[in-house]
Design goal:
Helix content: 10-25%
Number of helices: 6
Oligomer: single chain
Mean pLDDT: 95
Order of helices and strands: HEEEEEHEHEHEEEHEHEEEE
Radius of gyration: 19 Å
Largest sheet: 9 strands, mixed
Shape: globular
Strand content: 25-35%
Distance between the termini: 40 Å
Number of strands: 15
Length: about 270
């Protein structure tokens, strides 16, 4: 074994030991996938996202005496889920743009968590603007390239109708402004953007230019989205590593997934 391989071996061994002895904690950022979890609602002229459904095949009975299992169905973008570049028109012609083609190392990376919970508590339409991002960087340092940026709003503590927050003019929920998401993608070169809401865009994102700027800018630049995250309040501003591995669906535009964060115990909040 050469020196490099030996160092790599020790790095993995040290990580496993740190996880076993509690120096590194594992935080689940995923909502439970069930039929009651809200899904995005589009105007009626468009196709709609299907909720999660599960049916029992057998339960140690005449249908299968020694086993229990289920069939399930849902939209690729149901529950806590991943958005691949092919999901949006701006990313449709990019290489490696579907969940089965994205290099697997792209699913694991460091995370910066921008706490917007106070702003979102005051204003359902709170925006993550360049000013908010730069204020965060003044405290924690410049956002490094190729990391996940997670927008904490504590929206995940809502449920039912309050989660979608539908009004006469459509949903109202926080998200990035067009300038904010462009700064993250074009000037910070992030890997992807994650939110606690049902979509990476603000609820009123269709009124921006371009419409739904987070989807348009992220996916047009071969970046990724994470939606319906949970427990972002348990993560530090910096220092966590996110593991977000979608199902390997051929030509898949997205996938429900189990999102985990590795957090140094000394940094848990």
């Amino acid at each position: 074994m050469n020196v490099t391989n030996s160092q790599d071996h020790h790095a993995l061994t040290n990580l496993a030991s740190a996880m076993a002895n509690g120096e590194v904690a594992t935080v689940d950022l995923t909502h439970t996938l069930d039929p009651d979890f809200p899904v995005i609602i589009l105007p009626p002229e468009f196709g709609q996202c299907a909720r999660f459904r599960m049916e029992e095949i057998s339960a140690y009975d005449h249908r299968g005496p020694a086993w229990k299992w289920h069939n399930f169905s849902c939209c690729e973008h149901t529950g806590t889920h991943f958005d691949a570049p092919i999901h949006w028109i701006s990313g449709r012609d990019l290489p490696n743009n579907s969940v089965d083609e994205i290099p697997v190392e792209r699913f694991i990376g460091p995370a910066c968590v921008i706490d917007c919970s106070e702003g979102a508590a005051r204003d359902d339409d709170f925006e993550l603007t360049p000013e908010v991002i730069e204020a965060w960087e003044a405290d924690y340092g410049r956002i490094p390239p190729d990391c996940w940026v997670l927008m904490r709003t504590d929206w995940s503590k809502r449920s039912g109708a309050a989660y979608l927050n539908m009004c006469d003019d459509g949903p109202h929920s926080p998200g990035p402004s067009p300038e904010g998401i462009r700064l993250l993608v074009e000037q910070r070169d992030i890997r992807g953007f994650g939110v606690e809401t049902v979509g990476t865009d603000a609820g009123q994102g269709q009124h921006y230019t371009p419409p739904f700027p987070a989807h348009y800018t992220l996916h047009g630049n071969n970046k990724y989205g994470l939606q319906c995250l949970n427990n972002l309040d348990l993560l530090p501003p910096v220092g966590a590593v996110v593991i977000a591995t979608p199902l390997k669906i051929k030509n898949g535009t997205g996938s429900p997934l189990r999102v985990l964060a590795l957090v140094p115990r000394s940094h848990t909040v």
